[in-house]
């Protein structure tokens, strides 16, 4: 197991410090001694409560967080042993993202940027500047060779400062971080549309599996069906391109046949995501699915072999 400092442990330390300070103040009053007894009992109860929380943190089930960052994608998978973040949302939600992630960890073992669009990469520089990052995985069909937007330059500057060089996503290759493994399924070739160049990956974490699709559309899905059909069956589907009708073909959806699907989009977004066709597909198969615009951040957890919404 890797050495990791979960914020939950920091919280229990600060509570213990506050209790100590309170004891010293109380001892100076005439009720000091009886109150000290009460305080000691309360402190003991608190101590055992906080420790039991820490124990839960150590034995935590794998959690998949689909973070509500408005229109875009940002997901975090966290287990006892590793943290993987897939996409970083837009620039405008950088603070929301960093604050959310910081509640759980100081270190990200792997950051995957599915493709360099602002709604997936905008928050990358903030994450790279503020967290210890083990590895960054990106796709290699760089569309901003000469005229890169500011968020993209900032992400590369941040990586350079940290001595990080992005690892190229190669279809068929696997990456392992503790008990989390990623298998890259796409992009299988260079497509005209940068959305289709999205990294698509299968993630396995402590008995839970998920397919992350970025904004890959049906063209890429069809190639994945040919090359990696047997890798697609998974518990969770991060629905492609915010529920756009240009993604999630019926064939692709049935190959994944998820227990739970998640659509990451903003309320009243300019694109009309999720599209009627995607909602109709899920209705046809009585698919359990959650939208970040409706329910906020979605946290899924694997309990006794079954993925459920927390
Ligand atoms: Zn997108």
Provide an overview of this structure.
There is one protein chain. The protein is globular. The protein has helices at 7-27, 32-58, 94-102, 118-121, 124-130, 150-161, 218-228, 250-256, 276-284, 292-295; strands at 63-66, 74-78, 83-88, 107-113, 132-138, 167-168, 174-177, 180-186, 200-205, 208-212, 236-238, 260-263, 288-291, 298-303, 306-309. It is built from ten helices and 15 strands. The strands form two sheets. It has an eight-stranded mixed β-sheet with strand order 6-5-4-3-2-1-14-15. Strands 7-8-9-10-11-12-13 form a seven-stranded mixed β-sheet. The model is unreliable at 1-16 and 51-57 (pLDDT under 50). Helix 1 runs antiparallel to helix 2 (32-58) and helix 5 packs parallel to helix 6. With 310 residues, it is α/β, with parallel strands linked by helices. Bound molecules: zinc ion. Zinc ion binds at residues 72-73, 117, 119-120, 215, 242. Residues 72-73, 117, 119-120, 215, 242 line the site of zinc ion.
Keywords:
310 residues; alpha/beta; Metallo-beta-lactamase, Chain A; 2 domains; 8-stranded mixed β-sheet; globular; disordered N terminus; binds zinc ion
* SSE ordering: HHEEEHEHHEHEEEEEHEHEHEHEE
CATH class type of the largest domain: Alpha Beta
**Average pLDDT, to the nearest integer?**
87
CATH architecture of the largest domain: 4-Layer Sandwich
The CATH homologous superfamily of the largest domain is named Ribonuclease Z/Hydroxyacylglutathione hydrolase-like
Question: Could you tell me which ligands this complex binds, including any ions or cofactors?
Answer: zinc ion
């Amino acid at each position: 197991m890797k050495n990791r400092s979960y914020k939950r442990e920091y919280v229990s330390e600060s509570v213990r410090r506050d209790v100590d300070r309170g004891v010293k103040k109380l001892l100076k009053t005439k009720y000091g001694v009886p109150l000290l007894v009460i305080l000691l009992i309360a402190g003991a109860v608190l101590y055992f409560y906080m420790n039991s929380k820490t124990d839960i943190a150590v034995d935590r089930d794998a959690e998949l967080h689909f973070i509500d960052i408005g229109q875009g994608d940002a997901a975090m998978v966290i287990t006892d042993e590793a943290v993987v973040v897939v996409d970083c949302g837009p620039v405008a939600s950088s603070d929301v993202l960093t604050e959310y992630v910081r509640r759980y960890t100081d270190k990200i073992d792997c950051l995957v940027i599915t493709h360099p669009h602002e709604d997936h990469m905008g928050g990358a520089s903030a994450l790279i500047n503020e967290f210890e990052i083990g590895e960054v995985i990106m796709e290699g069909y760089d569309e901003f060779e000469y005229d890169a937007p500011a968020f993209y330059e900032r992400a590369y500057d941040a990586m350079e400062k940290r001595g990080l060089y992005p690892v190229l996503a190669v279809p068929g290759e696997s990456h392992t971080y503790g008990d989390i493994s990623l298998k890259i399924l796409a992009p299988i070739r260079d497509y005209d549309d940068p959305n289709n160049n999205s990294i698509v990956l299968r993630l396995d974490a402590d008995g839970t599996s998920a397919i992350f699709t970025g904004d890959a559309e049906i063209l890429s899905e069809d190639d994945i069906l040919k090359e990696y059909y047997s890798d697609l069956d998974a518990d969770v589907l991060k629905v492609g391109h915010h529920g756009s009708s240009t993604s999630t073909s019926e064939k692709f959806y049935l190959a994944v046949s998820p227990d739970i699907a998640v659509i990451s989009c903003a309320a009243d977004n300019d694109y009309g995501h999720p599209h009627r066709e995607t909602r109709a597909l899920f209705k046809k198969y009585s698919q359990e699915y959650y939208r970040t615009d409706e329910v906020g951040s979605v946290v899924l957890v694997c309990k006794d072999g079954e993925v459920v919404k927390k």
